[in-house]
Design brief:
The chain has about 575 residues and is an alpha/beta fold. The chain has 17 helices and 21 strands. It has a five-stranded parallel β-sheet with strand order 3-2-1-7-19, covered by helices on one side. α10 runs antiparallel to α11 and α15 runs parallel beside α17. It binds 3-acetylpyridine adenine dinucleotide. The site of 3-acetylpyridine adenine dinucleotide has 27 residues, from α5.
Length: about 575
């Protein structure tokens, strides 16, 4: 638990160069990378262990939708050669085990403080330092602050009336009990049909006496066809790792090995299209499916061909025609909400103990002591699972009172929606970096690839400042304005804004509707970042060391030290 015995704020570790908030994949790599460059770094993590998303999301069936050979760090060839992924798509316990292994292998834990939630961070311009405050009242300061707080780390339970009165057990998928939950013999409700629900429902259905699924918006899902990894495939993949990792940066999603589409759907005859979609369905996976044609995410007509293919699959799998039709998504183009990946989701609705409830036409009105009431009827449940998502991308940052002393707060700066330069810095907030922040391709890419690329950019930038005796970097307002406009322009040229997705902030009442991720692709984004760095950090203002910010002088002017990877 956080140290609540400390009454007065005090600086418990004055000799730091960089504070990192969050010990998920981003915070762990930031620590490793910056430590390798000689920076003195400390990471603060709210959870009692490392792993971020994979520490918290322990719901049944939790699994990554990027193949495990790709969803892994590339910074250490030894690590990627040694680690054995058992399955095509790794399950949460396996990914958590990997995160713990990385923490141990690279001796990270000595600089990670667990069980410590950061509630405030304040930048003092004269001192050129960020001071963070923990929920135990301790203050720590350093010249640089890195927010590795994650994009899907603020679970959201809708503001249902009556929840406090509920006498059964309730859970949120993003905040799952470590000891697991046994639903055997219970009457269970799952509310929501996003990626989390679609993974959890088939498993919960096998345990529960009866499962009711409350669906407000039907979602598209493609099969994972998960299976144990073939040792020959793994051997070949590992032999090609260096080329594959490089190639990932030349792709829109940061994942190599999927041949990019070469023609628009409009140019393909109907039979050819169906045959290609059929092949992709048989192969499984979301990237392959969306990579069928060049225009699936830019042309509604093209998109309709893929959407109708999936709807026909649902109609073929689900035996009851009314249930099948209710499961067919019709209100948004396929891929504009995160395309889901499942293991027997639609098939689950053929079970006698599973009922689909239309929470759009008969909305949930209140949680009762014994269950819930919709506009149509009362239901009784022993357990309710909220698979209702997250305050995505900005939620974790908004929970911290981030401000510049005598100036504005981040919440104020983002009143009309998040604005960043490259998703990495915010104008008016010097020396504070975001890893995969809004305006970056992060959530629209293989997260681990984007995390490594962002962290490398930030680390190079800090080494650049140090080598020149500089102490402060801030994004210029015009650079932030230009980038934010570019992010919007790129999104508006696609179908993405047509969905009420968390990418748009649409799942949180009152949240500004602005498309938050950069969908120009990892390839274009990385080229832009590389050019900016090579040009001396265009769009950033780098200023002098008069701030005397105490960046570890032993490594000053030495350039980039060798990493111990
Ligand atoms: O959350 P979501 P999630 N009454 O926001 C419904 C990543 N992820 O946790 O669409 C009734 O997608 C809501 O309905 P609607 C992935 O990026 C990855 O599932 O707003 N229903 C929706 O159906 C993913 O996109 C993996 O109409 C209500 C659901 O709750 C992201 O996390 C696995 C409601 C929320 O879906 C979030 O996924 C899991 C209400 N009042 C997650 N309020 C993999 O790697 C909300 N809903 C595979």
């Amino acid at each position: 638990m956080p140290d609540s015995s400390v009454a007065e704020p005090k600086d418990s570790n004055p000799a730091l160069d960089v504070i990192v908030i969050g010990a998920g994949f981003a915070g762990m790599y930031a620590l490793h990378k910056l430590r390798g460059l000689g920076f003195r770094v400390r990471v603060f993590e709210a959870g009692s262990g490392v792993g971020g998303t994979w520490f918290w999301n322990r719901y049944p069936g939790a699994r990554c939708d990027v193949e495990s050979m790709e969803y892994s760090y590339s910074f250490s060839n030894e690590l990627q050669q040694e680690w054995e992924w058992p399955e095509r798509y790794a399950a949460q316990p396996e990914i958590l085990r990997y995160a713990q292994h990385v923490a141990q292998r690279f001796d990270l834990m000595r600089d990670i403080q667990l069980n410590t939630r950061i509630i405030a961070s304040v930048y003092e311009r004269n001192a050129n330092r960020w001071t963070i405050t923990t929920d135990g009242g301790t203050s720590i300061s350093a010249p640089y602050l890195i927010m590795a707080t994650g994009n899907l780390s603020t679970p959201r339970v809708p503001d249902f009336k009556g929840l406090k009165s509920y006498r059964g057990k309730w859970y949120h998928t993003g905040y799952w009990p470590h000891e697991g939950v046994d639903f055997s013999g219970l009457r269970v409700a799952v509310i929501g049909t996003g990626s989390s629900a679609i993974q959890a429902i088939p498993i919960i259905a096998k345990q529960a006496k009866h499962l009711h699924v409350f669906q407000r918006t039907a979602n598209y899902s493609v099969p994972a066809h998960n299976a144990p990894l073939d040792p020959d495939y793994v051997r070949r993949h590992k032999a090609e790792y260096p080329q594959r990792r490089r190639a990932a940066y030349d792709t829109p999603f940061g994942i190599a090995g999927y041949p990019p589409p070469t023609k628009p759907a409009s140019e393909a005859p109907v039979e050819e299209r169906i045959s290609l979609y059929e092949d992709k369905w048989k192969q499984g996976g979301t990237i392959g499916f969306l990579y069928s044609y060049t225009d699936l995410l830019t042309s509604k007509d093209a998109n309709d061909t893929a959407a109708e293919f999936v709807r026909n699959k649902i109609r073929g799998i689900v035996k009851d025609p009314a249930t099948a039709e209710l499961l067919c998504p019709k209100d948004h183009p396929i891929g504009t909400k995160r395309l889901c990946l499942d293991m027997g989701y639609y098939e689950t609705f053929n079970r006698d103990n599973v009922t689909l409830v239309d929470a759009r036409s008969t909305p949930i009105q209140v949680i009762t002591p014994t269950g819930l009431r919709t506009s149509a009827q009362d239901y009784e449940f022993d357990a309710i699972v909220f698979a209702t998502g997250f305050d995505a991308m900005t939620g974790a940052l908004a929970e911290i009172d981030i401000r510049v002393q005598g100036g504005t707060t981040l919440r104020e700066h983002w009143t009309a929606g998040p604005r960043t330069y490259l998703g990495i810095m915010v104008a008016g907030f010097p020396n504070m970096f975001l890893i995969t922040g809004p305006g970056s391709p992060g959530v629209k890419s293989n997260m681990v690839v984007s995390i490594e690329q962002h962290t490398d950019f930030i680390a190079d930038c800090l080494a650049h400042l140090r080598a020149r005796g500089l102490g402060r970097i801030e994004a210029e307002q015009c650079a932030e304005d230009g980038w934010t406009e570019h992010v919007n322009d790129v999104a508006n040229a696609t179908l993405y804004p047509q969905a009420n997705s968390w990418y748009m902030g649409a799942n949180i009442p009152g949240k500004p509707r602005i498309f938050m991720p950069y969908v120009g692709g990892v390839h274009n984004y990385k080229k832009k970042c590389d050019a900016i760095a090579a040009g001396g950090y265009e769009g950033f203002k780098l200023t002098g060391a008069d701030a005397s910010n105490n960046v570890n002088p032993s490594t000053r002017h030495t350039g980039i030290a060798t990493s111990n990877a």
